[in-house]
Design a protein that fits this description.
alpha+beta, 45% helix, 9 strands, two-stranded antiparallel ribbon, 183 residues
Length: 183
């Protein structure tokens, strides 16, 4: 009778261990390429999503701010930020979070983990310069007759050199300054 009881208990323990190993293996295979339970990134619930799915969702939810440029007269000019100018990449940061938390899946069953991450920004310099070179506000009055050096005869003081070029906009320099401040 004792031998039967030992065999039954031993078989029961073996079945439980086998079941646990099987469930663990299934979990490892299931969460191999997707985020485990309880992961929130930038207010997006990421459980069951791949890194590329989370990245696509984060990119679609990101609203870049347009760039406002003021000229010397205080006029406001807006550079519209779109996917021709700016591309976002969350992949590197998501890979780090994925590796960090998929190893702690058991902890994540009981605690939700929230993260706020910023993307890596990649600006297309060529497209920015093309937009700036075609901007009307950078082309107006570049060679206005008022922006010259002239000699004015004054009866009291003789001849006066009048230099109005200090306010002359050099388009290439302006474009480079704007580009460098963006990137």
């Amino acid at each position: 009778m004792k031998k039967i009881l030992v065999n039954v208990v031993g078989s029961f323990i073996t079945i439980i261990i086998t079941l646990f190993i099987s469930l663990f293996s299934i979990k490892v295979m299931h969460y191999n390429n997707i985020f485990t339970t309880g992961i929130w990134i930038n207010d997006i619930y990421c459980t069951g999503m791949t890194i590329s799915e989370v990245s696509d969702k984060l990119i679609s939810d990101y609203k870049p701010q347009n760039i406002v440029i003021y000229d010397i007269n205080g006029n406001e000019h807006e550079l519209i930020i779109d996917d021709k100018i700016l591309t976002l990449d969350y992949t590197a940061k998501l890979n780090g979070l994925f590796k960090q938390h998929n190893d702690k899946w058991l902890t994540n069953l009981f605690n939700c983990t929230k993260y706020e991450i910023e993307p890596d920004f990649h600006y297309n310099e060529e497209n920015i310069l093309n937009i700036l070179h075609s901007a009307d506000w950078l082309n107006t009055n570049l060679y206005n007759s008022e922006n010259t050096v002239s000699i004015i005869k004054n009866d009291n003081e003789g001849y006066i050199l009048k230099d109005d070029t200090q306010n002359l906009l050099i388009k290439e320099n302006a474009c480079n300054v704007i580009l460098n401040s963006i990137i």
